[in-house]
Structure formats: structure tokens, C-alpha cells
């Protein structure tokens, strides 16, 4: 008998021997499954947290101690309002601030410029400079030069400039040269935007941007003892109709909402990966336990209690979880860098993935998530095998008596699950965040419940299968029937993964098709001119008025349509204003089929009305005929809503208006973009415009064909995240199939030996394994395809609710067929090793596989 103090060492030795010996394949399968699911969860968590971390750091560096700010969005607050705010009761100080994004020519990177009042006195001076960590030794020297700039040390090194050097930049008014009067150490404001920041005097920045008389916000410090709520209400009355009073950080709160949506998707994916890993762990550990039943029976006979055997199995599962979690965490750190470009497109004001990539790190939360996914899946998979093993005694090690033929399986369970799945898909009151995982869970259960009826059906069609597949047809499905529970788990896992990947492909195809239709149906024959690459975030660059005039006067140009994009506050939130020349647009715009009514809406814009995007209409419950009230420098102005336009601009939406109406209420400098039309080939016109605007470097000329190509490339960036997740999902699927077939081959080794002895050729045995794999794959693909079509609907709703992307459902049948082919290929490839093991079986061989 083995004493109690020796049971743990003996259990450890037996566990190591099992993992590295006869059961090493199953141990490897379990570890790979746990590692893949952990990598999937942690990589997305680290990517989304990098965005949030940089946003929080930037908000803290810029906000300082001012608890209130007066703002009107990107359009700005009239400078005259500073004095009125400063003299309001309860205000200790008020200072204007201005922000802009310029491009540094030398480094070809953006720089976020913060304009503050360096000469403000008293508390305002403390507010404007020192509280942000800006150490200005001689403010008079900085203000004396209208081109003086204080540059972060990191950006100065990147641009190759130092103190007293010239810095070439591009801004709204074209190329400019600034003079570096100081460097900011890595503290305070210099930590905002990952160091891509500079500081100027607010009035010098106004001149650089062409925004004299306006600031972005007025930062307010209350007098001691003043109630913040009461002061906010008082300042709201002072700024009524012109600006809004709010707490700092609203722009970053909006980003936080976007990141929160990503986090929700992350935890849904983590849950899916954990569930699949639990199924795979269960299947792998079940197979390992079955192969060790004699060993456990011997242990029970030598003094091991049932609890000791269960602890032994759970200990093995914890060891697998520890190794798999560590590997998955390391892989997740690498994958997070691959997912950053897709995150960058969402967090567009950071511009470029380098800043976000620098913020990727493993946090305690990441480790906790990895442990939750890895250990929970392993332990969940170990509970069943542990219970089964503790119920076996020595006599149980003998071969089981043949079981009586089971009665044909009835279908009440599958019918109930199918009804539940249909109800979940049809009840639109269920939030999409809940409906998507619920459909996956119910669909996986339905897939598992269909396995037994399908195997019974195959058993009743042996004669037909034998004629269709001579040599192996009469045995088709018998291997799967030998392990019905493992087969059901594998089908559930593969169907769930196929459904998720298919839903992601539908989402991706819908985004690409909607974007292409949106871009392609607008202005054929027009050439778009922008100050930044098409479809990239607009960093505040504008096409200077002189350049616009040059393009209008260029020989061969028959018409020009200017566009100006800005942001204003509506109901306390920042929304985009898209102003363009409606009459010029009417002359050239092509309306997509079914959208001809937009012509009347566009004509109403020319009369001074506005239109809104579909996202805006949904978010703010605005319909045709309603009125919108927008703040302007001269007070609130009401506009009548003429209709809606489709747009992919984000969760807040867009307000469209004629450029003349915009100019009547807000100041602007230049244009965000413009379209020009020519009588013939636009190429010589573009060349002439380039020569005439050589000093305005950075202009991009894009015709419709190139714009469509850019749209497809942009949609391809969106695919990167989805395909990365899909690849991991398919990897998990391959692991599931390999695990199941290895278990079946191990469980049927005596039967296969008898078949080999009876005259079956090695290739026939291998073909039998591959045929079972193909049967499994085809069934999983069929169920997963139907389930994926259902899951795509809530995924599209999530895109509309969380990110403001209202997409037309589009099925890319070629890609879906490719997915089915890849799944089938992955399954057959996973079956190759079990097939090779079976092929090596010799006649009268009784031993297990080595």
C-alpha cells in the first residue's frame, strides 16, 4: 500500500510520465488549445488598452487643474468671450487655449501643437503654463517671435532639430517655418500624445492657423469656496447660444466609449475562446483518462482514494493550464503589435500606430485575463474526466461487455434548441451584445445535439454508403460513433468557430462593399484634392485659399466643388459638420439606385436647410422636418432638417449644410478638400496645378478609380483584425479535430488490428480516418454556415450602435467558399497524423500506439 505522504510525489511522477510519454500528443493538444485561446484574448486586450492608456495620459497632461472649460467644438469660441467669462462671479481666472495638428516635414509625422497664453498674469499664468509642466524661462522672448515654438525633446530628436533651429511644418495655410525656442522634458504636457507635441503662444498659433479672434476653449479656475455646479450653471448662461460649459476631457471620453465597445468585443471573444478551449481540454483529458484507466485502477487498489485520483487529474490539468497560459500570454504580446494598425484606424486622432505600439504592455489585468481563460478552460475540461476516473475500480479495467444496440434517437432536444435559436434571432428587443453570444451558445448546443441522430441515420444507410464508397463506406461514421460525446464536442466547437469566422467575413465584406458603394457612386469624372492621403484622418490640414483660387483658374477646369469639415457641439456632444457647395454637387453627383430622393435633399441644402447622416438621425432621434439648434459665434441658430444621407463617419454622425450657409455663421480658412472637373483628360490639368502650387507640398490628387482603390485598401485594414482572429479560431478548430481523431484511433486500436488482420489494406484504414474527418468537417461547416448567417446580424448591429457604421449586409460568396475549403483542408490536415498512425498498424498488433 502507498502511504499518504507518498501519494503526491507518486502522482507528480505519474503525471510527468503521462504528459511526456504515451499521452504526450494529448498533452500537447491541450496546451496548444489553451495557449491559442489565451493569445486571442490577451492580444486584443493589450491592443485596446494601449489606446485607452495613451488617451488617459494625454487627457491628464492637457487638462491640468482647470475643472471647467468653455468650448464650442472645433469651430472655436470667440475670443471676446474670455473677458466675459473672466469677470463672471466666482471665476478666479480664465485663459484661452488653442490646439492644432501640423505635419513636421523632416520626420513626416504629425505634431499636436498646444497654444496657451504665455503672458497671462496671476492665477491665469499658473493655469496656462506652469501647471502643465511647461517651463518657460523667458516668456517675453518666446512671444517676441511669432514663429517661436517649444518642442518636446523626443519629437525634436525624431525631427533632427535642437534649440535655436528651424522647423519646417505644414498647416492649414500651407508650408511654414517655426523657430525652436525651447525643448520640453519628458514630463507634464510633453507626455501628451506619446510625446508628439509642441507648445506655442496662443496668439502666434492663431496667426499660423488663420484663426484670429477664436480659441478652441476657455479654461476656467473657480475662486476658492465656489460651488462648481453653481459656477457651471452661471457660465452656461453667459455663454448661452455661443458655447457650452463642461468638465474637461470630453473628447477623450468619446474615445473611451469607442474603446469600451472594443473591450466588449474582446471579452466576447475571450469567452468564446475559453469555451472552445474548455471543450478541447475536456476532449483531450477524457481521452487521456481513458488510456490511463488501468493505471488509476491500480492506484485505487494500492490505497489511493477517489479524491486522490481526482486531485491527480486536476493537477495535470493545472500543469497544462500553466504552460498553455504562459505560452499564450507571450504569443498575445506579439499578436497585439499586429492588431495595432486596426486599432489605429479607430483611434484616429493618435495618427499612426507607432505611438500606440509603444504603449503595449502586459498589465496585472492582462495576466488575470490570461489566467481566467487558461485555467478556467483547463479546469472545466478536467471536471468530467476526474469524476469518471474516480468511479472506476480494478475490475473496470477489463474490457466492457458489448452494449445493446441503442434505440433510434428522437429529436425533442434539437427541436427545442432550434426553436430557442429562432426566437433569439427574431426577438429584436434583445441587445446585440447579448444576442450574438447567445446565438453562438445555443447554436453550439444544437450542433452537439444533432450528432447522435446523424450517426443513427448513417448507421441505417450502410448499404448505400458501401455502394457509394467501396471499401470504407460500410464503416463510415463508425469511428465517430465510438466516441459520440467527443464527436459532439468537436462538432459544437468547430460549428461555433465556423459561425464566428463566417460572421466576421460577412461583417468585413459588408464594410468593404458599403464603403466602395459610398465612394463609387458620388462624382464620376471628378478629381479630389486633399491635404492628406485619401480616407486617412484629417489632421487639421487645409487647402489654402490661394491654392483653391489657383485650381479654379487653371486652364481646363470646368467646375469646382469645395468642402469644409469641422466639428460643433450638439446636445453636449461633438458632431461633424460637412459643408460643401450644394449646387456644384447637384451638377455632378450620381445617386445610387434607390437613393434618388437624395437629390431633393441636396437641393434643400442649397436653400439653406441641413441634412444629417443616418447615424446622427438614429443617435439623436432626428427626422425630416425637425429643427437642429447649433451654437455660432453670434448665438444659437436653428436649421431645418431636409433629410438624411448615408455616411460612415462614426458614432456621433454628421450634419451636412451648404458652404454658403456655413460661411454665414462660422469663420473658415481654405477648404478641407475639393473636387474639380475637366472638359477632357484631367492628367495635364493636374500637372499644371502641381506646377502652379509647387509651394503647397503635400497635396493629393485622386480620381474616382484611385479613390475606389484607396477605399478597398482601407477596407483591407479593417480585415486585418478580423482575419487575425479568424486564423486563431481556425487553429483551434484544427486542434479539436486532431484531438478527436487521435482519441478515436486510440479507442479503436483493437478493432483496427482485427480489420487489418481480416485483410484491410493500410491505405483503407487511413482512408477510413480521413473519411470520418471529412464527414465531421462537412457537418460542422453546414451547421456553422447557418449559424454564422444568423450571428452576422447582431454583429452588424454592434457596428452601428458602437461605431456608427450602418452597413448594408453583403455576402462575399467567393470568400465564404474559400472559408469552407480552408476548414475542410484544415480538418483533413489535422487528420493526417492520426491517419498515418492507423496506417502503420500491423496485423495481430495489440499494443497501443508508440
The number of distinct β-strands equals 20
Helix percent reads 55-70%
Q: Over the alpha carbons, how many angstroms does the gyration radius reach?
A: 33 Å
Give unreliable regions as ranges.
Answer: 122-128, 347-355, 393-409, 845-850
- Provide the β-strand percentage band: 5-15%
Q: Overall pLDDT, averaged?
A: 76
Largest sheet: 9 strands, mixed
Number of helices: 29
Question: Which features does this protein show?
Answer:
disordered C terminus; nine-stranded mixed sheet; elongated; alpha+beta
Explain how this protein is built.
This protein has 850 residues and is α+β, with helices and mostly antiparallel strands. Helix content is 58%, strand content 15%. It contains 29 helices and 20 strands. The protein has a nine-stranded mixed sheet, sandwiched between helices. Helix 9 runs parallel beside helix 13 (364-390) and helix 21 (582-588) packs antiparallel against helix 22. It is elongated, with a radius of gyration of 33 Å. The model is unreliable at 122-128, 347-355, 393-409 and 845-850 (pLDDT under 50).
Show the helix and strand layout:
Layout: H1 4-20, H2 24-63, E1 68-71, E2 77-78, H3 80-86, E3 91-104, E4 109-116, H4 122-128, H5 139-144, E5 148-152, H6 153-159, E6 166-171, E7 174-184, E8 197-201, H7 202-209, E9 214-215, E10 217-222, H8 228-238, E11 244-246, H9 250-291, H10 293-301, H11 306-346, H12 353-357, H13 364-390, H14 412-426, H15 432-449, H16 451-459, H17 462-468, H18 478-482, H19 484-520, E12 526-530, H20 545-553, E13 557-570, E14 573-580, H21 582-588, H22 598-606, E15 610-613, H23 614-620, E16 627-630, E17 637-645, E18 654-658, H24 659-665, E19 673-678, H25 682-692, E20 700-703, H26 704-747, H27 749-757, H28 762-803, H29 813-839
Parallel strand pairs: 4-8, 5-7, 14-18, 15-17
Antiparallel strand pairs: 1-10, 1-11, 2-9, 3-4, 3-6, 3-10, 5-8, 6-7, 12-19, 12-20, 13-14, 13-19, 15-18, 16-17
